[in-house]
């Protein structure tokens, strides 16, 4: 059912493999790389967030710059992220008690250590999706929609976001579930996800789509955080839009309209950036000419705290 897309080498010994599905599309929409059933429905998880943000802008949300990037984020829980979430909520006359996302600890290693040292407990604010939820609440206030039920799939907000996703992906949502943060989760194919990111990244200047891309690419630290591969990836690719997702999902669009969408079958995150960079090579991106992309092209396998091998792509 799945193809090996990455191998885990410990020295000269093949220790493990990661199966997955990968699609890279050229500017004209043709397939540059197609591995696995890219037309089967899957949950994009947080890779949907830039498309959800576009839906919120279309519904009248007035965010831009770093705060819009935060609305697309799976943030690490650093101070800039928490301050930004409070700012988005305050702009709508709301406090953190309005957040309905799941209580959680920061996912950034440094942010987590600092938070726990200060006696912090799991909270909706420090949950990595709180930026998206704050933007959802602000959109509700703008439209006079109920803020207590904004996570209901039948809520006017969620209906708008589903419609935006379907339009950008060029296909109908195949299933609706509940994401880890409690928000509705809409299933599409990897092909639909790649199509949506290609359209997003190639949208003309002045469009709402370009506004999302510009915010994320200009302020990638708000989308992820210190040391995060999604932050580093966008920093290395001017004009690109990229978003990681749980269960091994990754999507990226380039300004020329080419795109990559992938999912690691076992949900592992360690091979995700490795496979992404391999797909970018097939799109003609000069991976070896950029220090960041070269570093992301493999992932170290450690022995006694030192690199003794690597996670490498198979294509």
Automatic annotation (TrEMBL):
* InterPro entries referenced in this protein's UniProt entry, alphabetically: Asparaginase_II
Q: Name one Pfam family in it.
A: Asparaginase_II
Q: Provide the protein name.
A: Asparaginase
Organism listed in the record? Streptomyces tsukubensis
């Amino acid at each position: 059912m799945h193809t090996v897309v990455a191998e885990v080498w410990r020295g000269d010994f093949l220790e493990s493999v990661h199966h997955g599905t990968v699609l890279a599309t050229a500017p004209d929409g043709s397939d540059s790389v197609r591995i696995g059933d890219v037309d089967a429905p899957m949950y994009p998880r947080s890779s949907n967030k830039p498309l959800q943000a576009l839906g919120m802008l279309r519904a009248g949300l007035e965010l831009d710059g770093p705060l819009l990037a935060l609305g697309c984020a799976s943030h690490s829980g650093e101070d800039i992220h928490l301050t930004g979430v409070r700012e988005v909520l305050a702009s709508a006359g709301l406090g953190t008690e309005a957040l309905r996302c799941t209580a959680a600890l920061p996912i950034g290693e440094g942010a987590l250590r600092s938070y726990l040292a200060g006696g912090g407990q799991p909270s909706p604010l420090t949950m990595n999706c709180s930026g998206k939820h704050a933007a959802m609440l602000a959109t509700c206030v703008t439209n006079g929609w109920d803020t207590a039920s904004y996570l209901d799939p039948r809520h006017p907000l969620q209906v708008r976001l589903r419609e935006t996703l379907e339009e950008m992906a060029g296909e109908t949502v195949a299933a609706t579930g509940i994401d880890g943060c409690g928000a509705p989760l809409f299933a599409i194919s990897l092909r639909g996800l790649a199509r949506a990111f290609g359209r997003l990244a190639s949208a003309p200047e002045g469009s709402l789509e370009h506004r999302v891309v510009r915010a994320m690419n200009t302020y990638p630290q708000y989308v992820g955080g210190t040391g995060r591969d999604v932050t580093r990836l966008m920093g290395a690719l001017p004009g690109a839009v990229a978003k990681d997702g749980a269960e091994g999902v990754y999507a990226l669009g380039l300004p020329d309209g080419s795109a990559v969408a992938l999912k690691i079958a076992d949900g592992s995150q360690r091979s995700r950036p490795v496979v992404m960079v391999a797909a970018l090579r097939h799109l003609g991106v000069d991976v070896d000419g950029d220090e960041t992309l070269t570093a992301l092209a493999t992932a170290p396998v450690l022995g006694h705290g030192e690199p003794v091998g690597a996670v490498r792509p198979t294509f």
